[in-house]
Amino acid sequence: MRYLALIFIFLFFTACSLKKPISAKEGISDLLTLSQNSSTYLKEKSINGIDANEDSYEEKYFRVWNEIPDDTKDESMWPFVSYTNSEMYGENLQPIKEDAFKKLEDNANFGEYKSINKTAITLNHLDIRAFPTSKPMFKDPNIAGEGFPFDYVQNSTVSANKPVLISHYSKDEEWAFIFSSFTSGWVKSKDIITIDKKYTDAWQKAKQVFLLKDNIPMYDEKGNFLFRSRVGMMLALIEEDKDNYTVLSVSSYKNNQPNYHKTKISKDISSKGVLEFNNKNIQSIFDEVAKSKYGWGGMFGERDCSSTVRDIYAPFGLWLPRNSFQQSQVGKVISLENLDDMKKIELIKKEAKPFKTLLYKQGHILIYVGVYNGEIIALHNVWGIKTKQNSQAGRLVIGKSVYSSLKLGKEQADYDEESEILRNLKSINIIAN
C-alpha cells in the first residue's frame, strides 16, 4: 500500500460555417439513427485490458516537478512568429495593429526565460494562453470556420491542482509563463502557487487517486469550495474509509503561501490507482467525457477533439500527448495515404481494435469504436460539418462529442465531399494491446 504520510504536509503546508454558421438542431442522419451511447458499441464485445504502466504515467504527469523542459526560448515564442505575421482580428472584429503585438512581446519578458524555474501547482481549472492576455485573437471572421469561437490565443487548459513549472513572469507580473506536463503558455499569476521541492517529492510518493467525473465540487475540511473535478485529475491519497478517499488538495493562503487541505472524495467518482480497461469502466469514462460540448483549446471548460481523447484514456493510465498529430503517432501506426475509400475501409475493418484505435485526419482525431450495421463508427468531439454551396464554404455546426460514421453529414444537400472524414483520413494507430 502506497499510502503517503501526508499529514506532515497538511500540517506544514474540426476545427474538426456558410459565413453565418447553421446550427445542426436536427436533420443530420448519423445523429438521428446512430446510438449516442457507448453501450451500443460495447455490446457483444469483450474488451481486454491494456498494458498501462502506472509508474510511467505518473512519471510523465509529474515530470515538470522533476526536470526543466528542454524547450528553447525560440520554440516557446512560436506565437510571435505564427500569428503576428498574418492579419489577426480582435474582439471587435477589427484588425489588430502591429503595435499591439509589440506591446505583448515586450510584456512577455522573454529575456527572463527560465530564470525562475520554480515548482508550482494550479489552484483552478485554467486557460493556457499563447500570449499574456485574456483578449481573443481571431483570423478573418468572414471566412467559414474562423472567428468565434476560434480564439488563437487559446492554447490549451490545465486542471486544478496539477503540477506546473514557472519559467518566468511577465513584466507587469500579472502573468506567468508555465510548463505543464503536456504544453506550455501563459496563465494568470494569481491562479498558481509555488511549492517547495520537499513537498512535491512527498506528493509524488503517495498512492494517487484518479477523478472519474467532471464538475463535482471539491471542498476543504471546513466545507469551503476549492475547485471542480475533471476526469483525468490525480490527487495524492492520505487515507481512506469504506466510502471515501481523503486526498491532499491545495489553495492559496495569505502572502501567496500554499494552504494544504484534506478533501474527501466519494469512491463512486474516483479510483485508487488506474482503472482496469474493461467494458464497464470504458462505458463509464467514455459516456462521462462525451458529455463535453466542443471547446476550441478547451475554452469555456469544454473539450476539443484531442483533449477528449486524452482525458478518456487518462484514468486507465494511458498517457497521450495533447495535440491530434502527436496522438496519431502513438503505438502501432498504419498509413492510409494513397488509398481509395474502399481500401481504407477494408484496412480499418481488418486492423483496427475497438476502443483502442485512433483515426487521424489533419487537424482532427477520432476513436474507433467498431463496426455497426456494416459501417465504421467513431467517437469524436467535432465543431461541425464543412459545407459548400455555389463555391461558398460554410459549416453545419454540431459543437459536441458524437458517435458517427466516417461520412458524417453525407445526406446534406450542400455536403462538401472533398472535406469528408473518410476521404481525408491519413492514418490509424493502435494505442494499446
Count of the separate structural domains: 3
CATH class category of the largest domain: Alpha Beta
- Model regions low in confidence, pLDDT < 50 over at least 5 residues: 4-25
Broad shape: globular
User: Might you state the CATH topology name of the largest domain?
Assistant: endopeptidase fold (from Nostoc punctiforme)
Major sheet: arrangement of strands: 1-20-19-18-17-21-16
Organism: Sulfurimonas lithotrophica
Domain NLPC/P60 N-terminal: 6-113
Protein name: Glycoside hydrolase
Keywords: Hydrolase, Protease, Thiol protease
Task: Produce a short descriptive summary.
Residues 136-188 form the SH3b1 domain. The chain is of the alpha+beta class and 433 residues long. It is 21% helix and 30% strand.
